[in-house]
Write a structure and sequence with these properties.
The structure holds 3 protein chains of 3 kinds. Helices cover about 70% and strands about 5% of the residues of chain A. By secondary structure, chain A is mostly helical. A two-stranded antiparallel sheet of chain A has the order 1-4. In chain A, strands 2-3 form a two-stranded antiparallel ribbon. In chain A, a hairpin with a 2-residue loop joins strand 2 and strand 3. The two termini of chain A are about 35 Å apart. The chains are: A mainly alpha, B alpha/beta, C mainly alpha. Chains A and C meet through helix 4, helix 9 and helix 11 of A and helix 7, helix 13 and helix 15 of C.
Chain lengths: ~290, ~220, ~350
């Protein structure tokens, strides 16, 4: 029983990272049809930002605010520089370009910082635990889950209640007609990227709070997992991406706890295989394929 | 518009089209499928980049401007097939069209069925209701020129009649000039002041309804010599 | 065989022969120059040819960009290595092998062929799953295949020695042998491309649904391309293993995947000539740039001692150039023989026309 609770907490925590990453990916994909391979690098940028800030003794509340901001700005720069000239290009072209951007950024990190992992000096409270009943839970994991839920609610409200949010949902459905409404489509896309960057930054905060080390390739396996979550959730479905992200997190924790000791290193592989299996049975994903952002 | 030429890649869809719409007019653009009518509208509004030619609106040269800017100068296009945002509600569709509370009220008066369906997703409306929403959405920005691309496409005959009725009334009540693309030749000629007939990208014939009916518009339409 | 059937095959073989001649010429240059570094570069080029052609067979014909071929390459590489490392050394290096594999000691040729076959089987099994997906889903699923392979290569230490690297792989790579395999790959790819399977697959690229509705067994043809691609990639992986002498999981993950994709795109996705040309251009660029990495750069204001990663940046620049300027690559539409002789076989110098 104790182990079950521990697994649930860990699953929620890991699932939150995947959910946030998958959400950012799904957002951009719905609007632009772009599989942004470089999204993992936005996440890594978050990690390096944390490393840099903590290294200089910046207080953690400031780090929490700055990291998503930096990632958001990075995402906007990415859109402006790399993807806008390719607006309307085919899936393959966009994919290759995003792969190139990703590779470029990884190389820049390698040259500019280091190919080796950098340790992040986290604030002390990260190791604190909280006692609930007879259970001891790492407070950071609770915070993770709470922050994710708040972020999701905020995003939902934004998409439903604000003009920009409604424009983004419309853009996901019919980009051309949105332009006919006199809406500045470029701004809508830029903002969608910004949001996806902020989400990646949040994911980075939560992830590196427990991992505390970042290297140029940290983002890659995570973003591939997040991509799978997007498909599992159903391409084009934001809620699907979130649900699938949590499913992925739970599945990974489950495999790690259930597999015999020698096989735990394979847990990521098993999870992916299971998910591909799921996709065979239901290629449109868990929440189907709605026409736009719902 | 003068000497407009627009292409899809190497295929010229619109060749050297000269077209005028004066204030307060209803002008019809006729022609068979593939004649280039929709492309002409798209070129006017900036969705299709024009290779050559001049588009002038209210005394200003708007050729080459992106769609968002042209639309904000007072042209609205109701696209072929309506192209509503199906998963968004009626209210959200209208809101995206722009405009203010007063305009919205006025349009809801004109299209009362929309008021009933304000919170329903646009995709759940019937064909006729969707067409009303599409036109209402275009009118939200209080355009001076309304481009209607085949507004009766796919509608039942009874609804077609009401659409043409609406078009006739719009000119008076909304004070908007209309450029109407239609396949329904005779109905269109009934309601318009002037018309152009296009074939394979160019204007074959033009004139008033009387002139065109006399000269055998069918011939120009079908290209039969 | 009917006349029509004979003619497409003859045409494909003739076209491949042209490319084979070019490869032969390059190999001759590498051999004649006799300086070891140049010969190594040519060997590197020939191995790359097999890699890119392998990718072209699937992605060029099906239109689905695969980032997963390196998974098959890894399978091929580890298979070939296991089968050729001295049985005296094997037990110490790889503790998890079954008895038969521990004692196995095959020749270069057998090992490479077995490697290709094993990779092909993996392709068959994975294809049953992945090829049921389409569009973006297929691309991502294939990408996850790459990650799964990486995890397996890394974690199955008993069989692969994991991140520590598997060494003591005998140096069996010879210029001549690599040339033969490169030519074989080119022939296989070209014959497939011009065959019924290839043609129908390319035809259904734009709209698989419509194609299926008129009876084209799209999935079956895709599977053929996928398996052939897997075999070729597996062979390439084996050749790489023999050439390097040491392999580790990073040889089969993102960096080499990116390099192969750059070659594929720069050369042109749709043709076998493009694959060869892309391999040539990129290998050349890599070899030209690499020496400069050690030289560093002194710009007065900036003094960089080691420009590690310069090669990678150049690759990125290359591929972005293609994306923004000439998306179809060098040989985007027609094979070299088609350019020179026209598509009806009559000799004619046609200027490359169209988009």
């Amino acid at each position: 029983m104790h182990e079950l609770v521990q697994n649930v907490i860990n699953g929620l925590s890991l699932g939150s990272t995947y959910a946030l990453l998958a959400l950012g990916l799904a957002l951009v994909f719905s609007i632009m049809g772009l599989i942004n391979f470089a999204h993992g690098e936005l996440f890594t940028i978050g990690g390096y930002t944390m490393w840099w800030l903590f290294d200089r003794g910046v207080p953690w509340p400031l780090v929490v605010v700055l990291t998503p901001l930096v990632c958001g700005v990075a995402a906007m720069l990415m859109e402006r520089a790399a993807f806008r000239p390719l607006r309307g290009a085919t899936l393959v072209t966009l994919l290759i370009t995003s792969f190139a951007v990703s590779y470029f950024l990884q190389t820049v990190f390698q040259i500019g910082i280091s190919a080796a992992p950098e340790g992040i000096e986290l604030p002390g409270w990260v190791n604190d635990t909280v006692h609930v009943g007879s259970y001891t839970i790492a407070s950071v994991k609770l915070v993770t889950t709470a922050v994710t839920l708040v972020a999701l609610v905020a995003l939902t409200l934004f998409l439903r209640r604000t003009r920009l949010g409604v424009s983004m949902r419309a853009a996901a459905e019919d980009f051309e007609v949105l332009r006919l409404m006199g809406v500045n489509a470029n701004r809508v896309v830029l903002f969608a990227f910004a949001v996806s960057g902020v989400l990646a930054g949040l994911a980075a905060l939560l992830f590196f709070a427990t991992t505390a080390a970042v290297d140029p390739t940290t983002g890659t396996p995570l973003v591939i997992n997040a991509f799978i979550a997007v498909i599992l959730g159903g391409l084009g479905s934001l809620p699907g991406a979130v649900v699938a992200g949590f499913v992925l997190g739970f599945a990974e924790v489950l495999f790690e706890s259930r597999l015999p000791g020698s096989a735990t290193a394979f847990s990521n592989a098993f999870v992916l295989l299971v998910i591909i299996g799921l996709l065979l049975v239901r290629p449109q994903g868990l929440l189907g394929r709605p026409a736009g952002l719902t | 518009m003068r000497g407009l030429e627009a292409r899809y890649g190497p295929i010229a869809a619109v060749r050297g089209v000269d077209l005028d719409v004066c204030r307060g007019e209803i002008v019809a653009l006729l022609g068979a499928n593939g004649a280039g009518k929709t492309s002409t509208l798209q070129a006017i509004v900036g969705l299709l980049p024009a290779r050559r030619g001049l588009v002038e609106f209210a005394g200003e040269d708007v050729s080459g401007l992106p769609a968002e800017k042209i639309v904000r100068r007072g042209i609205a296009l109701t696209p072929e097939g309506r192209r509503l945002f199906a998963t968004l509600t009626v209210a959200e569709n209208l809101a995206l069209g722009g405009g203010d509370e007063a305009t919205r009220e006025r349009l809801l008066e004109r299209f009362p069925v929309l008021r009933e369906r304000l919170d329903q997703p646009a995709g759940s409306l019937s064909g006729g209701e969707q067409q009303q929403l599409a036109i209402a959405r275009s009118l939200m920005s209080r355009p001076m020129l309304l481009l209607l691309d085949e507004p009766t496409l796919g509608l039942a005959p009874k609804l077609i009649a009401s659409v043409f009725d609406l078009i006739a009334r719009l000119r008076e009540e909304e004070r908007v000039s209309i450029l109407l693309v239609e396949q329904n030749v005779h109905r269109a000629l009934d309601v318009c002041d002037r018309a152009y007939v296009m074939r394979t990208g160019s204007v074959e014939a033009q004139g008033t309804p009387e002139e065109l009916r006399g000269a055998g518009v069918e011939r120009a339409y079908l290209g039969v010599a | 065989m009917t006349a029509a059937a004979r003619s497409w095959l003859a045409r494909a073989l003739a076209g491949s022969a042209l490319l084979a001649a070019l490869l032969g010429a390059v190999a001759l240059y590498g051999w004649q120059l006799a300086s070891a570094p140049n010969e190594t570069k040519v060997e590197h080029f020939l191995i790359n040819v097999v890699f890119v052609v392998g990718l072209q067979v699937f992605s060029g014909n099906s239109g689905i960009l695969s980032f997963g071929q390196m998974a098959f390459a890894g399978v091929g590489a580890y298979t070939a290595s296991i089968l050729t490392i001295d049985p005296l050394l094997k037990p110490t290096l790889l503790t998890g092998l079954p008895h038969t594999l521990e004692n196995a000691h095959l020749s270069f040729l057998s090992a490479t062929l077995v490697a290709g076959a094993v990779a092909g089987c993996v392709a068959l099994v994975t294809g049953l799953a992945i090829l049921r997906l389409d569009g973006a889903s297929a691309v991502i699923a294939i990408l996850s295949l790459l990650l799964i392979a990486d995890v397996v290569f890394d974690a199955w230490i008993g069989v692969t020695r994991g991140a520590g690297g598997l060494y003591a792989i005998p140096d069996e790579s010879r210029l001549g042998r690599l040339l033969v395999f490169a030519i074989a790959a080119v022939v296989a790819a070209r014959v497939f491309k011009d065959s019924r399977s290839g043609l129908l697959l390319r035809g259904s690229r734009e709209d698989a649904f419509s194609a299926a509705s008129v009876g084209v067994p799209v999935r079956a043809y895709r599977m053929r391309a996928w398996v052939l691609s897997g075999i070729l990639s597996g062979v390439a992986g084996a050749l790489l293993a023999f050439w390097l002498g040491t392999i580790s999981p990073t040889n089969f993950f993102l960096a080499p995947t990116f390099a192969i994709v750059v070659m594929f795109i720069v050369g042109g996705m749709n043709t076998v000539t493009g694959a060869v040309a892309g391999a040539g251009v990129v290998t050349l660029v890599q070899e030209l740039v690499r020496p400069h990495e050690d030289q560093g750069l002194d710009l007065g204001v900036v003094d960089v001692h080691r420009l590690t990663g310069l090669t990678q940046l150049v690759l990125v620049a290359l591929i972005l150039l293609v994306m923004y300027v000439r998306r179809e690559g060098l040989f985007g539409r027609r094979e070299l023989d088609e350019l020179l002789f026209g598509t009806d076989g009559s000799p004619r110098l046609t200027r490359f026309r169209g988009r």
